[in-house]
Amino acid sequence: MMAAIALLLVTSAPAFAAKKAKAPAVPAGPDYQGALNAAYAKFKDLHEGKNADYIPALAEVDPNIFGIALVTVDGKVYATGDTSSKVSIQSISKVFTMAKVMEEQGPDAIANNMGVDATGQAFNSIVAVEQYKGAEMNAMVNPGAITATSMVSGGSREEIWNKILACYSDFAGRPLAVNEPVFKSEAETNQRNQAIAMLMFAYGHIKANPLQACDIYTEQCAVNVNAKDLAEMAATLANGGKNPVTAKQCMNTANVPRVLAVMATAGLYDDSGKWLFMTGLPAKSGVGGGILAVCPGKFGIAVVSPPLDGAGNSVKAQKAIAEVSNTLGANPYAPKPAAMATAAKK
Ligand code: DON
After folding, report:
1. Which of 95, 129, 156, 239 has the most CB atoms less than 10 A away?
2. Quick check: pTM over 0.85?
3. What span, in angstroms and rounded, lies between the C-alpha atoms of 281 and 273?
């Protein structure tokens, strides 16, 4: 009997050792770089849309700039195409000024002033202001955005501006700067926004200095960014307000879902519903050609490509982000996004 047991131990020992050596491999995470490369290849030769030209300097920007960047919540950066050329941030700035106001006054200050509802109208619609006297709209369209800029506290224009620029720079993880020719070009041609600011003042949403608010808003729209900056800004929102590359907490985590809700509602203006239907991702576009999108808890993604569709949203950026998001199974409304579920297990 003892001999039999000894024999069993001796013969089974190598088998046990062999089993241990064959431990199952850890499943690979999502192929972010592969998804970016595939989307770039698919859309690089697409020539639809047209640069914005109602701001004369934007018509001069190279329409062939096309870059895609993705930053994960653990700070990994993936990029393809032209991610170093800069464009003006334009309306994407509205997200971060709204976030700043939420930081200073709480999210209800936004909800109770310009509101958090879709207008179904163009981003610079005056009809949308008239409908509810400047309420029941949102901080992603020009009237709500100029009002949000007017709500940033400060004793002087310089103090307000420095706060806004510092806020954007924290989200982007590097010191950002203004594209002066774009600022000048828009400042010379922004009479419609000045009228909108005066209307929001007349209806009591802007409390003082409406033309100063419009001027600061115009300057914030002229901040220069590349695709990687925008992706890092989006990743900071995906990561609860903490920049995953620099580890700086840029905003209160509790306010992040409020910011994302307004982006989902109105980030692509009157096409926000179509966008959400396709991707499920809160996003924001700018007439400079950038779009950023947030996959909460996973990553931020951004594309820069100046030609726009009729609603003012970059054609290639919409297509490329939707493609990457669908490849990765990143729609937060999907019951079990395959590739992202693998990432969560890791
Ligand atoms: O106020 C404007 O018209 C521009 N500075 C920003 C508009 C914009 O980016 C709309 N976005 N798609």
Report:
1. 95
2. yes
3. 11
